[in-house]
What we know:
mainly alpha; 19 helices; 73% helix
Amino acid sequence: MKAAVLLAPLLGGWLAVKLWQPGEGRRALPEPLSLSVGALAGLGASSLLCWLWLRVFGAYNHGLAALEAAILAGLIYAAWRRRADWQWWVKGNGGLFAWAAVAPPLALVLAVFALQTGIEPHGGWDAWSIWNLRARFLYCGGERWIDGLSGEIRWSHTDYPMLLPCLVARCWLMTGDHGQWAPAAAHLIFTVALVITLFSGLLELRGPATAVLAVFALAGGVSLGRYGASQYADVPLAAYMITALVLLSLDGGSPSLAGAAAGLAAWTKNEGVLFLASAAAVVWLVEGRKRLPAYFTAAGPLIMAIAMHKLGTGLPGDFMGAKPTVWERLTTTGRYWTILKAMAAQWWRPAEPWTSPAAFLGLLIAARGLGKASASSPATRIAGFVFLAMTVLYGMAFVMSTRNLPLHLLGAADRLFVQLWPLAVLAAALATKRPE
């Protein structure tokens, strides 16, 4: 039963992605990329469906499982109707050697994930005080689940988006078992999907050598396994952000699928809203408005869900306090210097320079070499400008924070870097020379 509850959205997401693609007149995505994008889409869609069900009907009942089963049956039937021209496995660039080469860093990520899960099965502080706490309200609360968003526990950031709580609660509600298997399994899927999406996308965009080196850099620069097993929202958010950028970067890539991924990023964490807007603004600046209608059409339902959730909670965030005033925060130069040092420390580790993210990024660029045509391509500019925009916006978020700045940086700077690091790796890899 547990396996079925998890596999159903993965299968449904994959079928939906496969069915979605030909309608836009493009070549199909290679199968590993379709699988990872489909897994992320399926998990996000099941979360949104659970939230809508609770909002409309007030509490969970078996009608949600029946609705999901009907949707999955409809997707299977649609695939069967198109069986004559259905491509079950779309071959991409790279062969078994490329996948064998990327196995060691992926195995390391999985080993660290398993070890960290054994040490902290309930995840880190944010997992059990925010994300899983909210899921337990949804599971245990019945018709009073909304109390989990009460202002009485505003320290739990009840205005945060609901992808993770609804996804975990859905698994618990459908199985009747609220063990830690659900959040652990969900975060394992997010962690693996992040690696596979980056690797598969770069296989198509820059070839096997660059793709393999990028995954080594991704796994070496930050401990994806540890952060994924901590059950925070940062790895899922990074997975959706990298998915959106990969889909925008591919020749003839799907702006609608990219918009859906960006919308799911916003449904995952507040920072995802910044990404949704930043990616749209950068695409407009680099390519014009041609792809934006499809992008926002796909993201629209998620934007509306987020707006409904925010209006329902109506709680102040970390930026709404009276002291220090907005003017004081903006004009205190020491704040900028403190933030700059904290963010730079994520890039360079003087005690262990060979493990620094900057070193891994430098090795990637040195090994493959910068390409003039690659560095100036629309895909590289989109990925690079989005990374820079997100970095600046995160820095300004710290400037505007009313919390104790050193403590805020101590607790959040490393996790924000986990979100930014895959974007930096993608942008650097895209700037390297194309294979001959």
